[in-house]
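Need tokens for this chain, all 251 residues.
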Amino acid sequence: MDSWVRFNAQSQAKERVIRAAQYACTLLGYTLQKGGAAAELHKTVSQLEAHMSLSRKLLRLGNSVEALEAAKRAIHLSDSVLRLCLTISHLNRAMYFACDNVLWAGKTGLVSKLDQHKWSQRSFRYYLFALILNLTRDVYELRLLIECEARYRAARSPPSPSPTLPTDHLLSHSTPDMLAWLRRQLHLLVTVLYSNPPLLLDLLKNSCDIFIPLDRLGIYRTGQGFVGACGLASSVLSILTMVHPWLKLKP
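Here are the structure tokens for all 251 residues:
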């Protein structure tokens, strides 16, 4: 099992590069269509995108095993929120990859008469659930770090008249007071994200990725151009975490 996980990690790097190229083609195809380019050129770019998508599915064969191993590790985390979010997220990823493998078999003709649309929608649903849980984890960690930074600042500086503003305080005070409180919160947010690049990159990557299944499932249509841009951006961020492992959010 460990040998397979190590082997799978090598193919993931190739899959990320092909993913970036695929979404670059998606963005390029949208630009060509809007720019009124020749139909033959647009068709060539679309075919290249389809071939890259199929190549990625081939490289993702067996990724369910890696996702299940990650779920087994996550279930032993001491933090209950992280344990819940990461375990269920990895299980959803495992189901997403399993559906993707079935879809690959249908596209290559290994499984005849496969309802590809149904399996595609099913895989994107699992993908969406996994991303929602990943974003929940990011927000949870961000909240913990902001609270830690606020306590650290409070310990270093003399007590202020109103370090925080509860709801009734916000309603009874003037707009300048609320703006000052919002500025302090925004400064805390920027400080925490600036000092924690792995969390910032993971938050950006998941925020970009979530628009892909939302569009594919018809929940929130954004168009091919936006999907291509988001997919390309998240792929570059993912490649960056592979080139510099310290940028990968742990656990």
